[in-house]
Cardiolipin synthase N-terminal domain-containing protein
Amino acid sequence: MDQPAILVPAVVLAAAFVVYCYVELARATEVRFLPKWGWAVAVAISVPLGGIVYLLAGRSETGSDA
């Protein structure tokens, strides 16, 4: 099997997810449980788990319509 053919899309997808999480983090006015820099480190170190945890638990709900 050609390993780089499988690995390249996975790396691109992971990088895009990290960028999305950083954009969401930068646009957030407030976050929960950790400071922004702590979430940034968690997103970078633990791909994709850190980003998933931030998106589910770290974002503040003050800007929602509900």
Notes: The first helix runs from residue 3 to 27. The two ends are 49 Å apart (CA to CA). The chain has one domain: 3-58. Residues 3-58 form one domain.
